[in-house]
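Checked the freezer inventory, then went back to the computational side. Two predictions to log before the end of the day. The first one is the construct we discussed on Monday; recording sequence and tokens without edits.
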Amino acid sequence: MRRGFTLLELLVAIALLFIVLSAVYQSFRIHIQAMTRGREIQQETFSVRLVFDVLQRDLQSAFWEAEAQGTEEGEASSRPPLFLVQSRADEEGRPRDRIAFLTIASSSGPRPSELVRVREVDYRMVQEEDAEGRLHWVLVRREDDTPDEDLLTGGEQWVLARDLQGFEVICSGAQGEPTRGWDSRVQGGLPREVAVRIWPSRSGEGTEDASPYLLHVEVPVSEGTGS
């Protein structure tokens, strides 16, 4: 007569099965998390690269014409004031700077145009509310085809990237001295180089763990380049 399994043997077999299934589940969960994180990083990198491509193109075509900054006493100028303004701001422990300037790069807005003309462009972070009523920081780009004395308003704006933690802009003069805060009307021209750092919002990670993406742009040298 064949002897069946004892209760102890069944309990041991169930315990071993549970251990094996737990190991398989843990391995599967880690694999899924890695795949999900990989897709998030890919999307994150693509989003930041898009921002950098547009910003780099605008900065490399930054427009400055020294003679347009002033006229003879009593003489009116038909040209708008041409300058670059970068202001610093810090909120929630992260830099959320703003940079506005004139560029002759082709339009990259919702209605792109290859027409060469001087445009105002403005990059800054604002808060946007999602469908659940939660606020998220987004990076917007404003473009105005009719430059005027007010470089910070007018035109049309749209979101370039969502779910960002920080946006930092550092301008450097001809001597290489970095500064967060630049006004061409004060410095007398464009910065020689602009460094930009973007911090993404990464799910499951603390703010301090998010590493920034970095962009360096050399602004074309002109007689209006700041010293």
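The second is the one RB wanted added to the comparison set:
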Amino acid sequence: MTIRQMHHVSVVVDDLAAAIAFFADLGMELEGQTPIEGPWADRINGLEGIRVDIAMMRTADGQGRLELTKFHHPAVISPEPKNALGNTLGLRSVMFVVDDIDAMVAGLRSRGVELIGEVVQYADIYRLCYVRGPEGIIVALSEELG
């Protein structure tokens, strides 16, 4: 037995429209959007009375997917600290490869997205940075050099 592929990463958000817009600004495409509820959703999540809206975003190459989930019921639970940094236990970031990290950061900053730290170069291999999107989501950006 082995994993064949990673299908998607799920991120719970409060403002679904803002999250869709943020990831669209990164170059992802909205694959679909739908409400989810019912006994099967309750059973798989171990929660009762689930009512959510999900939006599935995909990378331009079609290989990566991100599920954005807005809970209507039950109420969401906020993490502590709210804007946790990279040394906090749990899923901390999602990384995307971009063509031009400076242009991407400039475009995101013009929309109010916060750069965490600074853009740095790792050897002669990558330029890297972290940005914080809606709901405190940390997105890593990587530009391959050479």
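For RB: The two ends are 37 Å apart (CA to CA). Residues 93-144 form a domain with the 2,3-Dihydroxybiphenyl 1,2-Dioxygenase; domain 1 fold (CATH 3.10.180.10). Let me know if you want it refolded.
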